[in-house]
């Protein structure tokens, strides 16, 4: 299902194109303390910061000391490992490589590669130190799985992101903290993170499904589950109902810590082997090649 991109009208909702916008409050965002308008769309229930002109300032430091970064990536890697193993056991898992969008330091794809999965990472604002030399999409072929953890709230237009970055990928796993429908959190809600200025889009399930529809996706493809700390934090988009069932099962098992009992014998069973030494060899070969290309002093 493909739809033509419809640019929003000036002053229209960037999520649905509607014009029933209500100003919520004026706030100061980023270290530059730029004045911004927090607005709510009554048509689709999208809550957002309008006209984010401060993003260059917000991303001057791509990693600002996110205190949940390590724990979140460890949990995400466990969830994805179990989910993808279930897919392989059920013979509906992707044989193509995966790509983590907005990967930051690259911790998630590094953890997945360490356990045998062919994952890469992309990020327009970060050096991706942990995933070198596997930065960038994995070749020109099909990508079986894409992920985007703590990315959706950074995106000005979710329909454009889903259309352009996710597209027809058969499996998309992501995280963002979704509001209850109709809820407008108070000014002290921690997820706003106004002082950093990178969070600009705050979805409910309803607003996100509207974005999916505008991107040409069936809203029924969305599954939302609770994370280990926050409700409505982990999500999947998949046309195949088997993936949606597997995601619910994997989430329940990981949240109970049972993946630690299952993965050590399930991963070898489906043919997964660590990529630590092969990746080290590739990295050393690239460094050696780069050194050989340098002129002698």
TrEMBL record:
SUPFAM superfamilies xrefs: S-adenosyl-L-methionine-dependent methyltransferases
Species name: Aphanothece cf. minutissima CCALA 015
Name of the protein in question: Methyltransferase type 11
InterPro entries tied to this protein: SAM-dependent_MTases_sf (IPR029063)
């Amino acid at each position: 299902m493909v739809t033509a991109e419809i640019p929003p009208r000036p002053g229209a909702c960037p999520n649905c194109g509607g014009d029933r916008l209500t100003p919520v409050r004026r706030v100061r965002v980023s270290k530059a303390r730029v004045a911004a308008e927090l607005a709510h769309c009554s048509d689709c229930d999208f809550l957002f910061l309008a006209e984010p002109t401060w993003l260059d300032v917000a991303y001057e430091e791509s990693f600002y000391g996110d205190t949940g970064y390590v724990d979140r990536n460890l949990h995400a890697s466990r969830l994805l490992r179990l989910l993808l193993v279930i897919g392989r056991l059920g013979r509906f898992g992707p044989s193509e490589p995966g790509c983590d969008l907005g990967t930051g330091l690259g911790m998630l794809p590094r953890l997945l590669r360490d356990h045998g999965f062919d994952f890469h990472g992309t990020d327009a604002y970060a050096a991706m130190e942990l995933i070198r030399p596997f930065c960038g999409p994995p070749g020109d072929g099909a990508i079986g799985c894409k992920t985007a953890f703590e990315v959706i709230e950074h995106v000005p237009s979710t329909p454009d992101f889903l259309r352009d970055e996710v597209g027809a990928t058969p499996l998309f796993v992501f995280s963002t903290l979704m509001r209850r429908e109709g809820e407008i959190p108070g000014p002290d809600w921690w997820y706003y993170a106004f002082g950093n200025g990178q969070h600009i889009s705050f979805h409910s399930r309803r607003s996100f499904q509207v974005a999916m529809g505008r991107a040409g996706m069936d809203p029924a493809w969305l599954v939302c589950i609770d994370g280990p700390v926050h409700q409505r934090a982990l999500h999947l988009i998949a046309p195949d109902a088997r993936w949606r069932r597997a995601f619910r099962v994997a989430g329940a098992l990981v949240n109970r810590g049972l993946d630690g009992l299952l993965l050590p014998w399930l991963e070898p069973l489906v043919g997964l082997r660590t990529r630590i030494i092969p990746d080290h060899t590739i990295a050393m070969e690239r460094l050696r090649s780069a050194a050989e290309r340098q002129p002698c002093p």
